[in-house]
C-alpha cells in the first residue's frame, strides 16, 4: 500500500475522471446502483468493511480516499487511526495524506482502514478501475455504490445488500 498526499490523491482521481470542477468526487458517467444506511452495530460495520474490500480482490491498483473527517469528533479515535497507519509505515497525519493506493494483496489493511472509517463516522471514496466501481461512504452514515455498467456489478450489490439491510 502506498499512502499519498492530497495533491497525489486528486491527480489519481482526476486522471480517471472522478473529480468535478470543485475537486469533489463526481459520479458523472456512473449509475447509482445501491444506497443504504450504515447500521450502528460495530459487528455489522466490521462485516460491511470486509464486504466492501472484497470488491477489490482483482485490482492491481485501487484507491481509498478518506475525505470526510473531523465532523463528528466525539466518534473519532485519531490515536487508534494514527497508530494503525504507523504500523503501515506512515507517520503523516490524515489531512496531509488522505489517499491510500492499494492492490488486492493489501485488502486486510484496507479493510481495517474502511472499518475505522465506518466506526469513526468518516467519509471515504473507494474506486476500482478493474471493475469501474466506486463506493462512497458518507459521514452521514450511508454507503452508495456507483458503476459504469449496472449489470456488471449485480453480484457486488447483492452481496453488499446482505450486510446493509
Essential attributes:
165 residues; alpha+beta; 7-stranded antiparallel sheet; 5 helices
Explain the layout of strands and helices:
Elements lengths: L1 E3 L1 H10 L15 E7 L4 H13 L7 E7 L9 H10 L11 E4 L4 H13 L3 E6 L4 E5 L4 E6 L6 H11 L1
Antiparallel strand pairs: 1-4, 2-7, 3-4, 3-5, 5-6, 6-7
Helix pairs in contact: 2-4, 2-5
When the domains are counted, the total is 1
Structural class label? alpha+beta
Bin the strand percentage.
Answer: 15-25%
What would the principal axes of the Cα set say about the shape?
Answer: globular
**Distance N terminus to C terminus?**
31 Å
Q: Which stretches are poorly predicted, pLDDT < 50 over at least 5 residues?
A: none
Number of helices: 5
Task: Report the strand count.
Answer: 7
Mean pLDDT: 93
Please state the CA-atom Rg, rounded to the nearest Å. Answer: 15 Å
Q: Helix coverage percent of residues?
A: 25-40%
The helix-strand sequence is EHEHEHEHEEEH
Explain this structure to me?
- The protein has 165 residues and is of the alpha+beta class.
- The protein has one domain.
- The protein has five helices and seven strands; from the N terminus they run βαβαβαβαβββα.
- Strands 1-4-3-5-6-7-2 form a seven-stranded antiparallel beta sheet, sandwiched between helices.
- α2 (42-54) packs antiparallel against α4 (107-119).
- The longest helix has 13 residues, at 42-54.
- The mean pLDDT is 93.
